[in-house]
Inverse folding.
């Protein structure tokens, strides 16, 4: 259809708009965006204030990341018909996308006021409240959306996530279960349920659901596709088994504890790991061959990612976790050499510090070194920075009270074996939720881990200890906005632990 002509070749008029709009909507729903856009524009040429065409073209603009156009058109529709809730709701989403959160909140509230039964409006309000940091209000809005549309898997997912963020363990699980009932074959629904169950301590169901992660599209980059079958509890007594790392370094450090379980069942075990873990894992007994990721693999019959080992091992209760430590070790001679290079003095209370994890836009763990400055009030403590990455630069100019007692170990830390050999000299490690927490715990070192209010599933809900690491103590946020309370609690515990502070 060219210009403002109809399909039969005559000039389109305002009388043709209903038929044109019907055709455009059908094309839009079929994913034929370009064709739909041409017709929306044709309608607006005939009637520049046609609210439905403005709204629908605005939605198409937003889907195609043309945010200024989306805001202009959705806003125009919302102003022309301020009584239509869906116009206000969709305008609010575009404003949210642009970071105009105060305006977005006002539009979302108008939508909810206009139609309190419109589930998408409550969902929109939930996303905006979450973006503004008002997690409790976001949870309440998401709960209302899920009540109004109980068959929406997406609403259940959002509700579950907000239940987790607000510390509602039972609701996190319940939302996950409802999502699985709605979409029983959706791997993402099962994956979300797995996280809820594991965080709640339901290992019997949780680790079984956890296996669905291997089919989740958003996790495809972590998946290894081999022609050999994956190990799922079948007999491997005559087979060569490849174990390979999946996820981050912390995951590998946590789940390599299951290596003895594997070696007791397979005829031969190959362990593949990232280069940064190779020297450390070379100290592990049991693997017949250790291979760095990227090097050619020897022949094998069956494979298993480390994170599938809890399922294979039947870890159905907290008590069945193989929690004996240490299972990772320092090299005694190298540890002694590091003590000399760092000028560690036996009379000091040597405390390792890590305040940031790897860069991640959704990271709730990382802090700055300044947050830990109150710990310098505890006498007799010597701080050894184990921080790596960009945040390690903060140790070069620490808070004034820490400066006389700060040693920067980062230049010595080439890989995790180096970090282990430094940790062996320390009395205590204080860290946010990073791989160093797992390393220190796996070494049986006293380690205090600082957790955000909504912590990772492996730390479970409400615990001050970890069933994975007997020497670990957890310090949790009592309020999602407050880290000072966590540091104050750590400081009080450090004062009790430091010999010179007693």
């Amino acid at each position: 259809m060219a210009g403002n002509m109809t399909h039969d070749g005559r000039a389109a008029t305002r009388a043709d708009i209903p038929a044109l709009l019907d055709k455009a909507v059908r094309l839009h729903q079929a994913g034929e965006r370009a064709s739909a856009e041409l017709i929306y524009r044709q309608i607006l040429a005939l009637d520049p204030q046609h609210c439905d065409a403005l709204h629908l073209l605005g939605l198409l603009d937003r889907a195609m990341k043309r945010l200024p156009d989306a805001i202009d058109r959705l806003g125009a529709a919302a102003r022309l018909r301020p009584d239509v809730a869906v116009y206000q709701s969709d305008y609010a989403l575009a404003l949210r996308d642009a970071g105009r959160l105060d305006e977005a909140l006002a539009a979302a509230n108008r939508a909810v006021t206009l139609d309190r039964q419109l589930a998408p409006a409550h969902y929109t309000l939930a996303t905006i409240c979450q973006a503004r940091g008002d997690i409790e209000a976001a949870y309440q809005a998401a709960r209302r959306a899920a009540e109004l549309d109980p068959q929406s898997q997406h609403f259940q997912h959002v509700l579950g996530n907000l239940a987790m963020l607000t510390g509602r363990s039972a609701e996190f699980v319940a939302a996950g279960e409802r999502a699985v009932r709605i979409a029983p074959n959706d791997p993402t629904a099962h994956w979300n349920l797995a996280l809820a169950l594991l965080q709640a301590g339901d290992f019997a169901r949780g680790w079984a659901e956890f296996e669905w992660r291997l089919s989740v599209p958003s996790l495809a980059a972590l998946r290894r596709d081999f022609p050999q079958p994956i190990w799922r509890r079948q007999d491997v007594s005559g087979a060569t088994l490849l174990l390979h790392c999946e996820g981050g370094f912390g995951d590998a450090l946590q789940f390599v504890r299951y290596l003895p379980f594997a070696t007791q069942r397979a005829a031969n075990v190959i362990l593949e790991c990232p280069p940064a873990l190779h020297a450390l894992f070379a100290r592990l007994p049991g693997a017949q061959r250790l291979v760095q990721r990227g090097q050619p693999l020897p022949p094998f019959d069956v494979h298993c990612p480390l994170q599938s080992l809890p399922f294979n091992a039947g870890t159905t209760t907290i008590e069945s976790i193989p929690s004996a430590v240490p299972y990772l070790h320092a090299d005694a001679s190298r540890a002694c050499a590091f003590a000399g290079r760092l000028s560690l003095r036996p009379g000091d209370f040597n405390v390792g510090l890590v305040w940031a994890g790897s860069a991640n836009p959704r990271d709730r763990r990382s802090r700055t070194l300044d947050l830990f400055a109150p710990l310098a009030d505890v006498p007799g403590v010597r701080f050894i920075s184990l921080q790596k990455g960009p945040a390690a630069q903060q140790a070069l100019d620490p808070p004034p009270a820490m400066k006389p007692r700060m040693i920067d170990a980062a230049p010595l830390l080439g890989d995790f074996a180096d970090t282990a050999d430094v940790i062996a000299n320390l009395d205590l490690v204080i860290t946010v939720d990073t791989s160093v927490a797992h390393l220190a715990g796996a070494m049986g070192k006293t380690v205090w881990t600082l957790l955000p209010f909504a912590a990772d599933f492996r730390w479970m809900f409400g615990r001050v200890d970890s069933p994975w690491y007997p020497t670990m103590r957890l310090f949790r946020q009592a309020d999602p906005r407050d880290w000072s309370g966590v540091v104050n609690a750590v400081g009080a515990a450090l004062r009790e632990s430091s010999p010179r502070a007693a």
